[in-house]
What we know:
Elements: H1 2-9, H2 23-34, E1 78-82, H3 83-88, H4 94-99, E2 105-106, E3 122-123, E4 131-135, E5 138-139, E6 168-174, H5 179-182, E7 189-195, E8 202-211, E9 225-236, E10 240-251, E11 263-264, E12 267-268, E13 291-304, E14 310-325, E15 350-368, E16 372-390, H6 395-405, E17 414-434, E18 443-459, H7 463-466, E19 483-501, E20 504-515, E21 519-533, E22 536-547, H8 551-555, E23 558-561, E24 565-569, H9 575-579, E25 588-602, E26 605-622, H10 629-637, E27 647-651, E28 653-673, E29 679-696, H11 711-718, E30 724-734, E31 737-746, E32 749-754, E33 763-768, E34 771-783, E35 786-793, E36 827-835
Parallel strand pairs: 4-7, 24-27
Antiparallel strand pairs: 1-6, 2-3, 4-5, 6-7, 8-9, 8-36, 9-10, 10-13, 11-12, 13-14, 14-15, 15-16, 16-17, 17-18, 18-19, 19-20, 20-21, 21-22, 22-25, 23-24, 25-26, 26-28, 28-29, 29-30, 30-31, 31-34, 32-33, 34-35, 35-36
Amino acid sequence: MTFLRADLRSARAASPSFPPLAKRLGASALALAAAILSPSARALDSGEQKPREAAIEDVIVTGTRDYGVKARESTAPITVVSSERLKATGRTNLVDALQRLDPSYSIYGVGGDVNNLVRSPRLRGLTASHVLVLVNGKRRHGTANLSSTGFTKGAAGADLDLIPVALVDHVEILEDGAAAQYGSDAIAGVINVILKADSEGGGLSALVGSYGQSYNPNTHGNGLTRNLQADKSFALGDQGFLTLGADLTSHLHSNQTGPDRTQDGTGLRVGPGTPYPWVDPNVSAIIGDAAYITGSAGLNAGYELDNGVQLYLFGTGAGRRGESFQNYRAPNLNGTAANKIIDPSGFVPAETIHEEDWSLSGGAKGKVLDDVRWDLSLTYGSDKIDVGLNQSANVALFNDTLKAFGAGWTPRQFYIGQYFRTLRTINLDLGKEFAPSFLPAPVNISIGAENRHETYAVRQGDFFSYYSSGPAAWVGIRPTDASDHSRESFAGYADISSKPLPDWKIDIAGRYETFNDFGDTINGKLSTRYDISPAIALRGTVSTGFRAPTLAEQFFSQTTVSPTTANIVLPPNSSAASVAGAQPLKPEKSTNISLGVVTEPLRDLHVSIDAYQIDLRDRIVPTGSLTGPSALAAIAASGNSLQAGATGTVSFFVNGAFTRTRGVDVKADYAYDLGPYGALRFDAAASFLETTILSVAQSPAAFNGAPLLNAAARSNITDLTPRTKVVFGGSYSYDAWTFALHFTQYGNVSSVVASPLTGSAPFYTNVITPKFITDGEIAYDFGSGLRAAIGGNNLFGVRPDQTLPWTRSLGAGIFPTFSPFGVNGGYYYARVSLKF
C-alpha cells in the first residue's frame, strides 16, 4: 500500500501504469522569453479546494524510463497540462482544449466530409499519423477514419475526442522524436493522457456555450453546446483505488457558409422550403461545425497484493452520433410533373456517422530477484464507424427508373458502409538500477518487448448507395472496395541512462521492430543534458525514427463510377494500382535533431528554448489524378466496367517526398504570491516552424510526364500549418475571485488550390494573414467545492480572411476551412462545478 499512497500524493501518476530558420526565429524566441516580465498571470485558484496546476515541478512519465524525473529536469521538452487548465479553456474535449494551450499542437478548425466529425491532433507541423497517443503510458488505437482532404489526407491518428475529460488528471506532451522509445508514429512527438488515480473524492461539472453572431442567418443551432462531466473515486479496501469518469456532450451545427448564387440547370441555388422562384441565397450549410452527441466513460483502478505485486486496469468507452452538412443540390427542372423532379425544393445532403470506440488495458507489475522492476500488460482497442447519408438522392437511379417505368424513384437515406480498426498490444518491461562506485549517480537499465496485432476492415454499403454514380455528396462502399486485412509486429527495445558527471546526464535508447508486411527497422536515440549551474542547463537529442504505413493507407479503396466516368482511389498494394505504376508502401524514415536551453533567471521564473530539425524521407503522400489509357487499364483491373469512350481517373498513396521541418519552441512560466493581495501567474509559449520539400519522387511512367505532386499537393505539405503560433497571458487570483486572460497569435497560413473549373491549373493561393485571438474567464469560488465561471474563446469574434471569389466552386465557401482557429468567430460559455 505504500507504493499506492506515494503515487497519489506526488504526481498521481508516477508510473505509466499506476496513473503511472534561424536568425529570425532566434530573435523572436528571445523576445518572447523577455516578455515574461509583463505583470499578467494565469490563475492560482483560491478557496477551500485549490485545483492542482500541473507545471514543470510535476513528475513525468513520458520520454523517460527513469523514475521521479520532473518536467524541468527532462532531457527533452515536455509540456504538462492539468485538468483544471483544460477545463478553464471552456472547451469540452481534449482536441479543442489543447489547441488553446500548446503552440506546437494544431488541428483543422473545419474538416471535410467525415473529417468534420472525426479529428486528430498534430504536432510540429506534421500530420496526426506522426503523433503517438498514449493513455497511462500505453499505446492508444487510431481512428478507423482515413482523412480524405488537404494536409491531413491519409492521416488516421488517435481520436482524443473519445477520452472523457472528467477522467483526465493531466496531459504530458513530449515535443521530440521518440520512435526509438515507443515505436511507429512517434516522429513528431507523443501525447500521453494520464488518468486520475484517487481513493476518494469526485466532482460534477456542467457547461452551456454557444457561438456569437453567425455569418449565415440560417444558423442551424449556432453551435449550442451542452456538456456534463462527472467523476468519483473509491477506496478498494486499504490496498487499492477505483476512479470513474464520464462525459456527455451535445453540440449543434454552426453555419458560416456564404450566399450560394451559382446557377444549376434552370434553377437558382436558393432555398428549400420557399416558394418558386426561390429568393433565399443562404441555403447551403457546408462551412461550419458538424452536429453530434457524444457520450464517453472510463475507469482507472489499481490494487496491491500482499506480496507487493500491483494489479491495474483502466479503459474508456465512447459512442458518437454525428451529422455533417454537404453542398446544397438544386432541383433539376427538366419537367414540371412531380415524378420527374426528385425534390421541388432542392436538398442539402448530410453525412452521418454512428461510432463505437473502446479501449481496455490491464496488467501487473512488481519487483523480482535483486530489485528488478517488471511490468506486464495487455491493451486492446477498437473503433467502428458506420457512415450514412441523409436527405440525399441517387440521381442516376432516379433517371433510370424514370426511363424504365415512367416514374422516377430513389431512396433519400443511404447506408454508405463501415470502417473498422483494432489494435491489440502486449508489453513486457524490465528495469533495474545499478550503483557503480565510479559514477556519481545510479545507472538505470530498461529492456522490453512488444507485440502488436492490427486489423483494418472496409465493409460495403447498401446496393443503392453505390448504384451507378451513387447518391449526391458521398458514394457508398462498393464490393470491389470492401476488404479486411491484418498485420503483426514484434519489437525489442533497451534504454540506459546515467550521469557520467554530477551535472551531466546521458540517455541512450534503441529499438528493433519487425513487421510481417514490410520487414525490419532499427532506430536509436541519444539524449543528453548538462546543468551548467542551478540556473541554466543545456540539452539536446539526436534520433532516428520510422512510421509504418497504416493498414488504411495500404488498403483503403474508394470508387465513384458511372457508365461513362470513374474516379477511383486504389490501394497501392493492389494489382490494379500496379498497372498505374504504384509500388507497395514502405515505412517513412526520419532523423530528428534538437538543441535547447533551460534556465531559471529569477526565482519562480522558468524559461526553455528548443530548436529542432526533422528530416522525413519516403513521406507517404497521395498522388494527383492519373488519366488516360493507364488509368482506364487500372480501373478495369480493379473489377469495374466502363462503356466504350468512357473517361476515368485513379490515384493512390505513394512514398513520394523528402521533407525538412525546422523550428524553435519557447516556453516561459512565472508565478508570484502577493500574500493578502492574491496571486499572479503568467505563462507564455511560442512555436516558430517552417517545412520545405527537399525532393519529390519521380513519377511513374504511367503519368506521362505529369508531376507526382502538383502545386496544391505541395502546398498541403508546406503551407497549411501556421509558421508562427504564440500563446501568452495569465490571471490574477484574489480571495474567491479569479480573473484570467489569454492571447493567441497565429501567423500566416495559406493554401494553394486548383481552379474549380479545370481541377488543375491555373492555381490560386488563399491566405489567412496573422490574427490575434483573445480568451478570457471570470470565476468565483462559493466555498464547499462550488465554483462558477463565465468566459469566452475569441472574445472579439475574429474570423479568417475570406477566400478568393474565383476559388469558390459553388459560391458558398467564403471562409477557408484550413483556418487553424476555425471559422465561427466568438464562443461564449457558462460553467458551474462542484468538488466533493
